[in-house]
Amino acid sequence: MPVTVLLVDDEPLVRAGLRAVLEAQPDIEVVGEAADGAAVIPLVRQLRPDVVAMDVRMPLLDGIEATRAVLRTIEKPPKILVVTTFENDEYVYEALRAGADGFLLKRARPAEIVHAVRLVAEGESLLFPASVRRLAAEYGEGGGNRAARAAMERAQLTEREAEVLRLMARGLSNAEIAERLIVGTETVKSHVSGVLAKLGARDRTQAVIAAYESGFVAPG
Hints:
Strand order of the largest sheet: 2-1-3-4-5
Order of helices and strands: EHEHEHEHEHHHHHHH
């Protein structure tokens, strides 16, 4: 089955460019478009996309609030890929905090766009981990988020789960973590699931953000 994508951006040229790049791939299908975040909820309910590629800044409802709305109201929400002009943008970090699974630069090359959609859809690796670290270093309160620290303490991760979370934060995939720890991939998946459950995180991106904001992992 192809990865289905909903495009949300107030610039028709951006949507057209993304559609052209994505639909050139045999395993990706663009199932719809919208010009504002306000249209996302009904379209997600109607089309059930695997991934929503959504501009972070739009006139009526921006990508941050639209992300929150999707995760709050859709029972099995799609992956959300925020599309942005600027990489080092507080809006991007706020979108990640709100629950977005990753971000994509509008100037990205076609191969990077396709890779981002596939990676977010699979959910087994962190998209652009170095960029997430930079964003966390600038906007993540330097480990001073009390709520994040309290949540990390309550999680009571095992030693192996803590090790897996640190490797997740470095951007390693499940297969790479398995190779590093000399265990099976299924064992790593089990540990990742345990980390997400204990932290109350929707996916590995949210777990990594929590790790940075709690000070569990230093973003430097």
